[in-house]
Amino acid sequence: MARLFRRTSEKAGLAPGSLIHVGEKRVEKTKITIIDYDQAAFGEKEVATVAECFPFKETSTVTWINIDGLHEVDVIEKIGKHFNIHPLILEDILHTGQRPKMEDFEEYIFIITKMFAYESETDTVRTEQFSVILGSNFVISFQEVSGDVFNALRDRIRNGKGRVRRMGADYLAYALIDSIVDHYFILLEKCSDRIEQLEEELAGDPQSETLQDIHNLKQEIVHLRKSVWPLREVISGLERVESPLITENLSMYLRDVYDHTIQVIDSVETYQDLLSGMIDLYLSGVSNKMNEVMKVLTIFASIFIPLTFLAGIYGMNFEFMPELKIRWAYPALWVVMLSVAGVLIVFFKRKRWL
Amino acid sequence: MARLFRRTSEKAGLAPGSLIHVGEKRVEKTKITIIDYDQAAFGEKEVATVAECFPFKETSTVTWINIDGLHEVDVIEKIGKHFNIHPLILEDILHTGQRPKMEDFEEYIFIITKMFAYESETDTVRTEQFSVILGSNFVISFQEVSGDVFNALRDRIRNGKGRVRRMGADYLAYALIDSIVDHYFILLEKCSDRIEQLEEELAGDPQSETLQDIHNLKQEIVHLRKSVWPLREVISGLERVESPLITENLSMYLRDVYDHTIQVIDSVETYQDLLSGMIDLYLSGVSNKMNEVMKVLTIFASIFIPLTFLAGIYGMNFEFMPELKIRWAYPALWVVMLSVAGVLIVFFKRKRWL
Amino acid sequence: MARLFRRTSEKAGLAPGSLIHVGEKRVEKTKITIIDYDQAAFGEKEVATVAECFPFKETSTVTWINIDGLHEVDVIEKIGKHFNIHPLILEDILHTGQRPKMEDFEEYIFIITKMFAYESETDTVRTEQFSVILGSNFVISFQEVSGDVFNALRDRIRNGKGRVRRMGADYLAYALIDSIVDHYFILLEKCSDRIEQLEEELAGDPQSETLQDIHNLKQEIVHLRKSVWPLREVISGLERVESPLITENLSMYLRDVYDHTIQVIDSVETYQDLLSGMIDLYLSGVSNKMNEVMKVLTIFASIFIPLTFLAGIYGMNFEFMPELKIRWAYPALWVVMLSVAGVLIVFFKRKRWL
Amino acid sequence: MARLFRRTSEKAGLAPGSLIHVGEKRVEKTKITIIDYDQAAFGEKEVATVAECFPFKETSTVTWINIDGLHEVDVIEKIGKHFNIHPLILEDILHTGQRPKMEDFEEYIFIITKMFAYESETDTVRTEQFSVILGSNFVISFQEVSGDVFNALRDRIRNGKGRVRRMGADYLAYALIDSIVDHYFILLEKCSDRIEQLEEELAGDPQSETLQDIHNLKQEIVHLRKSVWPLREVISGLERVESPLITENLSMYLRDVYDHTIQVIDSVETYQDLLSGMIDLYLSGVSNKMNEVMKVLTIFASIFIPLTFLAGIYGMNFEFMPELKIRWAYPALWVVMLSVAGVLIVFFKRKRWL
Amino acid sequence: MARLFRRTSEKAGLAPGSLIHVGEKRVEKTKITIIDYDQAAFGEKEVATVAECFPFKETSTVTWINIDGLHEVDVIEKIGKHFNIHPLILEDILHTGQRPKMEDFEEYIFIITKMFAYESETDTVRTEQFSVILGSNFVISFQEVSGDVFNALRDRIRNGKGRVRRMGADYLAYALIDSIVDHYFILLEKCSDRIEQLEEELAGDPQSETLQDIHNLKQEIVHLRKSVWPLREVISGLERVESPLITENLSMYLRDVYDHTIQVIDSVETYQDLLSGMIDLYLSGVSNKMNEVMKVLTIFASIFIPLTFLAGIYGMNFEFMPELKIRWAYPALWVVMLSVAGVLIVFFKRKRWL
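^ inputs. structure came back:
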């Protein structure tokens, strides 16, 4: 079952803003990596303690602090304290299963999304919650596990390719979201492949598992849709927000990623329509098969039951049955029987059951 | 049947604002408890008469007056008179079966919601109407029965944990709603467990009761949805209301509980989709089974009916049937019969009915 | 059929504003009753001619003129002329089958609704169009037949119970609408009872009439919904209208009756969902029954058709059939037959058809 | 098929504003009639050439120029040139198959609607496009064929009945639309009659044609709905338009015709619901019939197949079958057979198949 | 499968604004044609290098630069650089599979649409992305392949027919969109023809392929709808945009093409309804056929199975069966048998199965 909401009852009764990690522990140790750059310089390191991130708050360079793993609550808490993040936001970050949303505080903007990473080795999709805090010259991102969809972006930063090194922290935050949305298209493709495969199965010899598969794919697409739909509002929220943190020349890029989310939603809806149509086809296929089975039964039964009756008549042991003595009675009966069968066959042909 | 509206016809014809309790009498005696606190002090007592609540209206501390049981109309009436509550509001409190709503009077804000308390011993869900009146430094809450979802909140007040002791009456009202919404998640979990269980039944050997169960769960979820949907408007109403009763730093918390209601609604809709999909699967399973039954019948009938006919032929008593005299006729007929059966079996194999 | 629109073609081609009664003549003679009151005094009489109403237009007391029966067009016309009502409004009053609506003229406010009066003796619901004209100190109401849902209100006016005697004509108009909405709840209850009864039928032994009954109830609920939905707009229109005819302290009451209409709509929608679910259950019940019928047929046929074939074999009259001479052949055949039957029974048990 | 859009591809590639008649040629010769009136005078004539209309543009009386037949493009073109109509508007007039719409030019207002004229002799409905140009003191109307729904209106103008002679060109335009909407009610009635008739067929002995008929009626209602829905916007557009061409005291009348269109839409939606419900009833009726057929088959086969088997047993020719020699064996077998049949009949009665 | 989105994963990971052609390479070589005109002059040529287009940017005449083929990225890039087009726009042009949209930059307006070109020789529809850049006195259009729907427009420009030579670049851009929308009507007609053909198949002897065909057509119509729906917003965006690039007298034309898109959407929705209704008819046809098959089987089996039983009785070999000795027993049995058959036939006639 597509379980959208984890066991959140663990939290019921706690004070709002209580920091407790809700979700599976999916990584051994929290990993913190720092990428620090401006147009000229670039630095990248993995740090051991949270405190090592703090100096970067003040520098004029753009700093991307990435945290993999959410179960070490005190790490998140320290970052929250130093960067002055509201406890309810920290709670949202820790409490996986949030709906994508965007909130504007004066000092920072908070964005929460779902990241879908397709892993080609295992042919599975890893879903995780991805939270971003965009400050004046830093971006802090929180992931549930290490391994993400940002390797290409990291390469662009390292090599100074594209615009990212020339632009500010807001562009970095945009680039993160853009990478996530780009990976939605990979998912769509997998869905599309699966749909084609199911269509072939349907056209060939559908099994009852086929319907179950269509049904499951439909559920997964509903799941995807639930993640993308609010993302649309998040991005249009970013476009409209009046904050010094988002510079004017970002709006063009936001509009672009907005268009992409609309495209994803469009595809998802098309896929849903396709799958609904396929369910209808499957069900009518079942009915058609039943019809065929019934026709075969009816033809056999309707032809042979009357003939068996006739044979039964002359199998009776009455002493006075004049037909039994007649020499040509037996072949005559065969003629009668074949005529009956012939008439019935013509009748069924007319009805196009044969 | 999920009966959303109690026998309200008892009331038809009465003047608007007439105080009469509509609903079952669910508790023996009305119980009034008072919790009074500020950051420094804390007091808690159960009072015998309504009048004992009145002094707390004037104190500067935050007072939470909780009333369990609505059938003693005069208690409600006295409170209404002393705290200056409009008769129509009192009518709403007494008349269980209201839709969640929020109304802003200048002196107080009135909120009505549905509380779902899961009782693990009996594995049932108790629904009751929960009304809150938020005044300048007091909160009056009305419940149908004693026993609620606020024990954890009471502990936080008693022990001074969390923010609640440091903040005003508006935070207390928020905390009450937050507790209610948190308990919706427990319900969602129960639904999710039930859905999983039903899915297993479906995948195994579904009975006709399974469909009835899916149907019932769907009705209950509709019921839940009807309670949560208007709650969304209530909370967004609280966010927007311009009242001195709601301080500015509450908005962050209201937005948080608003997000939670959206999550509940999202889950509820996902569950509805899931259950609809399960009904489709059930029905197609019924069709598939019918198909299988028909195939078995058709195979048996189509093979043996022609053979029985052949046997019937040579059971006839005609005097002149040359085949009967032939020595190898009997084994020859067996050969013919087995060939016919063989051809039919091949035919059915080709059709993949075997 | 739930006929929402009467034979309005009688009117096609007439000039707009032509006064002609469209609808059945449902009462013998138009009856005019006048209730006149203020906080101190109260008078009530039935008048013979329209002219007797006219003096009340000028008095400072609140006057309620109620007209039962719409077919005496000249009565309506005279009232219209004296009270200065627009001809199109008079047309709407006479032309039953209107959609509930509210219109604000400066001198008066015009409201049209549907009144559902449940008559317990005959267990039927009488629907009629109810129009109200609210002037500065008078209310004129138009009903199709005598007999309405206002007796309790009349008693309250006579006895000075409730607020009605202390308040103005606007409160009277409100009280009329409130009475109508209160009676919708009685209807909802009847629906709810009927649904429960149908659910029991469904759980027991549903007939094909059951489906027809569900279907009919669904149509009636659609009919109810069509009447209540626009009423919602009517009342919210009254809340928003800026007219001296509606005093400020009425808004509280309007909001209350607005909440009630929302509740009615909520119930109606819940009932529609319930009935749709019941139709699905009914249909799947039909499929399940068919399955059971088919299983019985298949079991009988599949067991006995092969056995009959075997019996047919040894009923043949070939001269050379060695088995017929063997002493233990007959009991041996019985053993074979019972084994075949046993194997098939095990097979059907495995398939859980037995 | 309800073809909403005529072969418009004839036009693809032409310059916008090219005047070409798209639609069937439905009348032999274009007919132009002029009705000219004020409160005092009245004149009516049929003119041979377009030019005869031109003088009426300047008179102070209200002039209604009606054109029947759209295929003589030059007639339309000349009118367009003289009355200063935009070529795109002329294109819309000629190009039948437009969606109802309203456009405000400063000099004139352009309205396009669908007219449904029921012809009782042939029991068919004639659909045509009806365009109106409302100028300062003239109305030009364009119809596809002669014969329309305005005869009653013409009589009112001729005889000076109603308000029409006392009011301006705007009232005339309103009166035309009002006549069209009034005739929608006649159509609704025909639909309602047809639905009742189909309901009776359903309750009696539905044929497979019944479903086809329901389906066709549903399509026609969709067609009607497509025409009425935009008309609603047209009229509310006229209400809101700020043009000297529409005087203030018309708004009351526009609101009235607006209410009528809402009523039409309401009915149409009710009819759609009814027809959908009827399709469900039909389909479940098919299932119920199948069930009944299957029950009859199952009862016959299940009772007689075992009995035939028993008869087959004692029809075998084994030499050593002790039962055959027993005197009372034959009647005993009858007893056994009747018992078996009795048990099965009881079994089927219990299952309520009998 | 209607694949709305091409393999866009090729792009995932690239910097936003990276120019890479996403889509099939559908033409051998990029072709650039220039049409340059004002009211007096006209020139048309195919150029070999991009640079030849650049001088036209400055001329006062209207210039239409059309590019067929998108895979030569450097051509697009050079144009972008010279005409100062934003890289993200260039990316959209190259990345086929965009949703129709309109964006207003100060220097130019960017429009993206889907072009459907029906090719009568092959009876197929070619879909391609069509992008337009509208500058102050030039229009640049980008197509995936050569061959388009603008030949009639080109002729009008060449011959100076219609308004196009007298008006500016904005009119040219409008005329391009208008041509595209005009061709949607051709598609609609093809759909309509196909629907009629499928309706005939349905009324005649539907095969299981018929359902597949209906299903496929429905998918194609969904595809069309997805392209037209956003086009509506594009055009209403153009109407509302406040840009010096769009002159005031264009608004009339934009409103006209807007009406056409609404008509297309209306048709598309009607077709969807029609096809859904046809699927229902098909499925109920399958059920009706099954019913007929079952009736035939039931009639044959129910009549002959009891008769065969009777024949079986008198085929038994009991020594003491008094009936066998009776002279008239055999004809008497025939009478009994015919009576049984007669009774059953009457029974089936009553049930209207015969």
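The helical segments of chain B are 73-83, 87-94, 151-159, 169-203, 208-240, 251-313, 329-350. The first strand of chain B starts at residue 31 and ends at 37.
thumbs up if we can close this ticket
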